[in-house]
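> forwarded from #structure-qc
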């Protein structure tokens, strides 16, 4: 009996095993696909060949070991000498195809810099720093220069700006003649001008709006070097580390290569202070207010009322921006603003087609907006017995906890007939008693609706600001409501102080330091005196700093001018952040030349951050090196003369 039971369970076990095996075979899993592809495409052949001489192809084909794509070729691929007719750049399966539309110049080295535009079709691994060269003559020029373009005002990397060279040093060449050779900056502002012959050159940067490769528009950002550049080469050595896996070093080897100089050029780009001047907008948003907007800052224009005739000579109050590009005329003569239409004669600066300023005279008509007219309802609604009182709006910057370094600012919604210190009372509370506090009273020089009170605050003191009701009247019949606000001025132990000792400022030059918030916006300024900049009553937190060499002593950054051969004022960033602590004095030493300018601006406040590249698995470096060795003949650099050369791979 036991034998039969044992035989039964053995048979059952074998049957179940067979079923499981058959089920597994019938449900085959999808293949995993192998290791993730992180290798860029590899060149197999090209037509014409790399670095070919006496070649004048209208079409270049480069074949790779896998299907490829060319990403944004019009932005990333740079052909030099620059092409007036846009070439056709496309991918066809495994091939990159470039069709040149310009007639090729004789005895000239042509360079097609693909940067990182070529990627494989599946994972989009980029083939970085890929360059194809050929010569229409019997020599190939292989010298190159490189560097970085930064915005002169804030050291932001400038992306996509052309960098070009001229061997003719005439001052007008930059404005008349296209570049001889060009490059374009990447996301970090870096550039390399390739295929240069031995010689002496001037270097420029140009944000070319019309793609003619010359500076013929004052609204194009530019940069230029004062010095003459002589390209050269030197032998150099670097250490390459190959990894067995992500942690284990396999080999450290010494690699000899050719270094092309100069490779650390700094171009500071700027927009000229030229701006086309014209009247951009004029309107009448309210019956008693005329608004004029100009396209650029200019001298204050003159006005004359044509119609209606004003009863008083002073028929308006002027409100303007700091540089006169926005003007508001508050009409104070009721006989004028009650009219449906106002005609105003204005004389203002305008720029002609030759970029010259002249005084233009124009007559402007201002009609009341339809929305400004009172609407009449078809059915007369029963009016309320009492209309709500509309007061003159008055705003202040007073808060319950008030900053020690702030003055009191008052702004009205309309210009007022009269307002002076007698209308305001400022009290300091001691125990239960309030004492009047003296203050300096100022009217804003640009905005007649703004006023400033400057008392001497007692740290930690309790205050009250008071304005009686119906004490202040606007020109349009509104009066103020009663205003009263109690507040406490912050104590000294809530602030920190900063003193910066600065080295590296050129002798005899003025300079100032600006403190910046996390958005790179300045909020405090201090002029450097005896190599020191001091800041008091700073709120705790992380801040940044930059220094401006104030060449013209005007207290603000001044742009450059190519016609006058004037560079923009130099800007330096403190290469790090400053942490201000409450109730602390901070002393900082700052040598503005201790860190190269191209590496000074902290990444935290850099707006144009570099693009993140796909990281390669270190365990696959040996396969990459083997592929590079197999393709070494078309890529190996052979010095910097007028023969030989080609692509130099950068790590």
């Amino acid at each position: 009996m036991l034998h039969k039971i044992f035989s039964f369970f053995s048979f059952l076990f074998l049957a179940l095993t067979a079923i499981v095996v058959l089920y597994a075979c019938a449900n085959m899993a999808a293949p995993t696909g192998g290791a993730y592809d992180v290798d860029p495409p590899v060149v197999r052949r090209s037509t014409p060949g790399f670095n070919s001489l006496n070649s004048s192809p209208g079409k270049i084909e480069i074949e790779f070991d896998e299907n490829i794509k060319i990403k944004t070729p019009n932005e990333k691929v740079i052909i030099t000498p620059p092409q007036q007719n846009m070439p056709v750049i496309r991918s066809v399966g495994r091939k990159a195809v470039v069709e040149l539309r310009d007639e090729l110049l004789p005895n000239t080295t042509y360079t097609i810099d693909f940067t990182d535009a070529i990627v494989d079709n599946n994972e989009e691994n980029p083939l970085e720093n890929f360059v194809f060269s050929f010569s229409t003559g019997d020599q190939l020029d292989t010298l190159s220069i490189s560097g970085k373009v930064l915005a002169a005002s804030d050291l932001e990397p400038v992306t996509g700006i052309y960098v070009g060279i001229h061997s003719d040093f005439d001052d007008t060449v930059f404005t008349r003649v296209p570049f001889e050779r060009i490059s374009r900056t990447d996301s970090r502002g870096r550039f390399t001008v390739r295929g240069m012959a031995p010689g002496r050159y001037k270097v420029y940067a140009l944000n070319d709006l019309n793609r003619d490769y010359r500076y013929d528009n004052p609204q194009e950002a530019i940069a230029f070097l004062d010095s003459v550049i002589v390209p050269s080469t030197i032998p150099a050595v670097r250490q390459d580390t190959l990894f067995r896996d992500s942690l284990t070093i396999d080999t450290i080897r010494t690699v000899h290569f050719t270094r092309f100089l100069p490779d650390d050029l700094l171009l500071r780009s700027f927009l000229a202070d030229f701006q086309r001047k014209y009247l951009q907008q004029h309107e009448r948003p309210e019956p008693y207010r005329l608004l004029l907007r100009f396209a650029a800052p200019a001298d204050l224009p003159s006005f004359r009322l044509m119609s209606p005739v004003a009863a008083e000579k002073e028929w308006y109050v002027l409100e303007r921006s700091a540089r006169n590009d926005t003007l508001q005329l508050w009409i104070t003569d009721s006989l004028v603003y009650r009219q449906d239409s106002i005609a105003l004669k204005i004389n203002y600066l305008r720029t002609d087609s030759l970029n010259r300023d002249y005084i233009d005279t124009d007559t402007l008509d201002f009609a009341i907006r339809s929305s400004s007219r009172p609407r009449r309802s078809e059915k007369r609604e029963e009016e309320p017995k009492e209309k709500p009182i509309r007061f003159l709006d008055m705003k202040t910057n007073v808060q319950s906890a008030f900053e020690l370094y702030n003055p009191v600012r008052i702004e009205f919604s309309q210009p007022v007939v009269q307002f002076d210190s007698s209308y305001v009372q400022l009290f300091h509370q001691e125990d239960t008693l309030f004492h009047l506090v003296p203050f300096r009273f100022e009217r804003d020089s640009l905005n007649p609706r703004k006023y400033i009170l400057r008392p001497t605050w007692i740290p930690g003191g309790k205050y009250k600001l008071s304005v009686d009701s119906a004490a202040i009247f606007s020109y349009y019949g509104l009066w103020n409501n009663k205003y009263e606000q109690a507040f406490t001025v912050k104590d000294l132990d809530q602030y920190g102080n900063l003193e910066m000792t600065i080295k590296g400022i050129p002798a005899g030059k003025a300079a100032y330091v600006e403190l910046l918030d996390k958005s790179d916006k300045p909020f405090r300024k201090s002029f450097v005196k005896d190599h020191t900049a001091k800041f008091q009553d700073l709120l705790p937190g992380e801040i940044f700093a930059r220094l401006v060499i104030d060449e013209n002593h005007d207290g603000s950054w001044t742009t450059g001018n190519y016609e006058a051969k004037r560079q923009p004022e130099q800007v330096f960033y403190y290469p790090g952040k400053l942490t201000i602590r409450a109730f602390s004095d901070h002393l900082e030493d700052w040598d503005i030349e201790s860190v190269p300018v191209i590496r000074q601006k902290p990444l935290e406040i850099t707006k144009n951050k570099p693009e993140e590249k796909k990281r390669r698995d270190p365990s696959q470096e040996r396969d990459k090196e083997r592929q590079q060795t197999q393709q070494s003949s078309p890529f190996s650099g052979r010095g910097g003369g007028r023969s030989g050369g080609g692509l130099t791979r950068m790590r």
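QC bot note: Residues 146 and 192 are 4 Å apart (CA to CA). The longest strand covers residues 249-261.
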